[in-house]
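Would you mind writing out the residues of a protein together with its fold in token form for me to study?
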Amino acid sequence: MASTAAHYRPEEDAREKTLTPAKKARAKAATALIAAILCLGSARPVEDVAQLQARFDQEKDGNRKAKLMQKLGDAQFVQEREAAKTNDYLTVGTVMEKYRDNVRQTLEALKKTHPNAEKHSSGYKQLEIHVGRGLREIRDVILAMPEPYRPPMHLVEQDLKDMDMELLRLLFPRRPGEKPLPSSSNAPDAADKEKTEKQP
């Protein structure tokens, strides 16, 4: 029985060495192409805004709502940018107003299901980060759109700013150097104390 070494031909080895760089380049390109096709084929389909909105509306827990808000908000930003490309500023405004309303719903759900933001900060932090992105997005929208469409967007921007400030206050209620607001029950006591200190 002949061994494999007996079938070795030097001319085949020489031919293989001369084609190696070209074969390697083709093999790498083919591997990259196959990997790209497999990645695209295995990627999950992106949910559209309507599906995400339906899931968001059904969710009652604040933390889960905040997590959904990230996906929904990102999808709304994509929708808004696509509308802006076609100069459809009515749709842009509608989408950003809906984004603002969703942020408000999320904040209310968080306050209802997890009232102590310091102890249960996860959802509050997620929402605050996304509202920061929303504020940058609305500023870009305002700069890009014609003047007649801007006033409602200024209102949306202000609402987002107010909610962002509320989120920060809820997350960080004790800030060094900031004096607490006087309550109405303490005000008369302070005035009486001041009067008695001035008397001899």
